Amino acid sequence: MTERTSAIRPTSDCSPDTSGGQLSVGSATASPGDDSPLLVLEKQFNTISAELFAIERLRRDQKRNHGPAGQSPERSTIESCVEEQTHDAVMTEQIESVLARLHPIERAIMQTPAHTMAGLSVKARHAAYVTSQYWEAPIDKLDWDARVVRLLIEAVCDFARTPLPFWNVRGHE
Question: Bridge partners of 166?
């Protein structure tokens, strides 16, 4: 599991169309105070990151089930090793494919201006996803730069009354 997805949880179950390399960001004529393009991007991001999380969970579970205790004694070590390497390569390819689809959405989230608290909270939750390692340790164990980023993200999410995109946030219950 990658560092970026180990703690992420999708915040919606929408399934917008992001097939064929198309990136839908809503109306190009959105009003100046309208954050609908950011909200659409967040739905796309949540859908694809949920897919990524599911692939990585499957990869982790399969590695756990194919460990030495899960192998039959009659299976050859070479056969087991080749099968594991092939499976790992396929899983890595799937993860890279999903990350490639996620990348333009992430860039668009950060490049699209926010006009409301809802739009700002989309950006804050994305920043939390990108810097999820800042929630792996208690806040008093972080260096100053990481602490500042984490506290700012938490303040924006708290003010906007939107949850951080994590299953388990240490020190922020």
Answer: 8
